[in-house]
TrEMBL record:
The lineage of its organism: Eukaryota, Fungi, Dikarya, Basidiomycota, Ustilaginomycotina. Component of the Mediator complex, a coactivator involved in the regulated transcription of nearly all RNA polymerase II-dependent genes. Mediator functions as a bridge to convey information from gene-specific regulatory proteins to the basal RNA polymerase II transcription machinery. Mediator is recruited to promoters by direct interactions with regulatory proteins and serves as a scaffold for the assembly of a functional preinitiation complex with RNA polymerase II and the general transcription factors. It comes from the Eukaryota. It comes from Malassezia sympodialis (strain ATCC 42132). This is Mediator of RNA polymerase II transcription subunit 14. It is found in: Nucleus. The keyword Transcription applies. The keyword Nucleus applies. Keywords: Activator, Nucleus, Transcription, Transcription regulation.
Amino acid sequence: MSSGGVGDVPIEQLLQELPLEDSNLVNLSVLVERLSNLAYQTIQSLSDTLPSLTSHAKRAKIFSTAIELRKIFVKLLVIVRWSKDVEMLNRARNVIGLLVEQQWAHEDVFSGLTQVRKILPNARMFDADLVTAIDILRTGTYNRLPKAIKDSTVPQEPMTDSEALEVMSQLDMVLRERLAYSELTPLGLYLSKIESGKAYFEAPELYNICLTTSGPAEDDRWWLLDFSFVDQVSELENLDTILTDPYLDHVYGTSDSILEQSSSNDDARPTLTRLHEFLEQESLQRQLHILYHQLENMFRFNWGSSIRFMLNAESRSLEIFYWTSHSVGATQKTEKTLLQGQLTLTLKTKERIGKDKVVSEIFSGSDAVSHSSFIEVNWSTDDRIQTYLTPEERNIQLKNLDGEELVLRTIQMHSMALMKFFQERIISHNGLSAGSSNICTLRMHAGSKYEPRNCLQLYVTDTIKIVLFVSVITGRLGLKMLESVDSANGLSLSLSQSHDVSLLRLADQINANISQLTELLFTFRLKCLRTDVQTQASWMGLPYLTSVMLGPGELKKLGISDGHPLLFLPLIVIPGFYLMLYFVPGRPLSMALISILTQNDEGKSMQTINSVKWLDKDQLSQYSITGQDLVHVPKRNAPEVSMTTSRYEGIQSRELELALHYCIATVVYSHLEVQFRLKLIPFMLVGATTNMTAPPESSPDPLLPSLCIHAKELLGPSADLASPNVSLQICDWWLPAQRRVEISMKLHLKTTLEGGDIVLFEGAILNLGTGVLKLICKDLTTVIDTLHQYWDQAARMCLLVNSISQYSGKRLNVSLKSVDHTYVRFLYEPTEKEAQKLHLSASIKFYGPNQSNRQRFGLDFSVDEYGHENKEATRRNPHSLIATVLGRSLDSLAKERMDIWYSMFQTNYQMLEITFPVLQTLEPLYYEALTNPDCPDVEIRDYNWFRIHFSENYTMDIRIISKERIMLSDSKSDLYLGQSNHQVHRESQDKNVLSAWTVMQQQQSLHLPNKPNDIPEEKKQIRNKENNIIILNYKDIICLNDIINFLK
């Protein structure tokens, strides 16, 4: 035996003789696809459920899924390795099949031989066979076999080719004549051809049949030669051993019995008609079984528990229930049929009536009753769904033999009707669209047969758009985020669920109770709107509250009982006020400024809305903060606005920030108005939204007005220094770091200065050219108090400038030099021709209201070096000796009166003018005493009181007693003591001093008052020369130096 065969027979020929054993086999690709789908579904289930689990549950789920996947992949590995030897295994299976056939053949032969052994003893000739007996008697032999043996064993002579062709031709002629005249083809059965003595018939999409006849007469029998079913099923369906072979056995047996029966029986229908009706029913019934087998594969591979089916052989019907995986609760009885459907395929046979009956009689040539069989498809679902379908869409037909295609086509119709039903409910909901169809759009999508073709596109907010769809297989409602709507018609929805946890939870809630679909979507819309504005507020760094515990009926009190507050943004600088963002169905996102008060009602704390101001969102949206400026933004086109309004346009970040700053400025204005009303100060709103024009010096504000206030009631006694009207305006309110209140007024300055804006002190700016004073307050809650503080300082500076400008002294020429920052500088010089021309300067510094030591002024005296040629002689200003005490005196006077500068420049008691001659004389002694111990010391007691220390035992006082006179006196004498006490004090004085004063009094001419009555009674002792007093006029002030030298 060779390795390639047995003897001379090659191995290929031996393999061809082996029977093909392919029954009960499953295609390898089907197994691989099933395991692959199972692994994919396991991974997809993990991805769907993992985001909503806790950390511990996630680890457990991942571990269990890994174990399950390992088992699947092990099975797949076994199949792959086994497939390597599948050819040898199939060959061994075929050899086993051949051995089984040989075994059965041997058993049949053995059984036949055993039966022959039992029959042969009884196989003898009959005793009464006379013919055979005569032959034996005559000839002595037996020459004839029985006829049956002869007919079965002796072959006839074969026909020639020409004889056979002639027989076939005649038989073809017989078939044509019989089918044309005596027995016509029934309706539904079509003659395809007649060839080689055979008539080939076909029933479209049902079966093919081959018949022949034994003769041309009507009683001659028809013979069934061949039959086959016409089934358009998938190549993967191996239905021969399950459905084909049993049906063929039944068809051949029943068909022979029908063909054997003659038409003379009770059934008057032609034989072919009866045969066609039988075969039609058998083909349709087999199609139901094929559909049932396809449903079984659907259940095993993809659909699982989402589909149920039942084949009823008695009623010849197939019931299919899809979307059966829902767990329907007791609270969902009215809505459970929305996501369920049933298909009933029934094999029905009915009598032909009407035109079908007439056509059948024409075709069959008989008026006997004929029947037609068909599979009727009945689609049962909720009546509310059926109303959204046309009669053509509700009429489901079995177009081809594909159960999955029939179910998917029905589900697509169901999904489309369901989406229309949900769309109508969403559009009719007042909180979602308020009758506008733009919020909810029905979309058609392209995709595979397992992907949804119909969905609802929902515009939740401007940034969030979701898609509501129904899963084709499970029938569960799903939600997915839609990134772009531009190509929505070509969008393909994935089978996988959304990874957004909030959408997963919302979908679960909707599937649990479909009747709450609109309410759940509306709640999700509010949540998205709140999240949107929260995100914008967080991105802008704004504080916010998601809820405030308002009392019942507070929103109804505002007229928005159906409103839903989304966010509360507190005004940090002003407690108790909030910018409320709320949503009212049928309107865009709205804003309001509210104030909230906390009240106690029966021991319970309750928050109530005290006041409200509605904000015009459209007006605010026309402005934007660009850099440091508030810029007008062109309004969008009308079509875009209308479309956006129907979709509930949200608020942008710039609008939210601008609205919050606008609320702060509005509340500040409101507080200022209340304060002005309480103090009975009249005011008027100008600019912005009013009809009055804004003040020319203030920058126009497009959103907020300015306040025009009467200066007389606001500024008090010093109101004459300013124009009658004062402008108050919040500037740069959209910039928190630069937000301030500016109070502008026109000052009445008696002189004109060159220069621009100068800062008098922090918070006060004066324009020297226009005379406009701006008081700036950054603390918006203390505007009026700060105004009074700033104005007090500014008014004193204004009085100083006016006093210097209107100086009317005779001994000094005073001129204003500059006003800069917090200083007012002026020049002055003596007017006497014989006096040395001194160019002196003085600076008065004004301290702001926040000075720690409460000091208002500071004086500094110097020499104007640019106004004198001899800089050595004028290096000091005599008034620098009294700068400190003079400033202290001015501060003391400033606490009680505003016109202190008139005391210094305008009144009869002009400080600089009356002190200059004395200080000019004492200034050299003051600085000489610092280096010369023999020089008398000069003590500054006050700006009009000086004491000279000549020795340890004697001092002299110099007092400026009027504008024209000074008084020299002994500092140890009390000028106003009584006579007795003065006598005691006089006796204690040194005789040399007394003699010195006597000599000076004799040498000096005393200029006493002409009228004694002008001196008060208690001061009459001043006329007594014994008091050591010398009174000098200013024209005799030169004698002061001689007196000092004399006393030295």
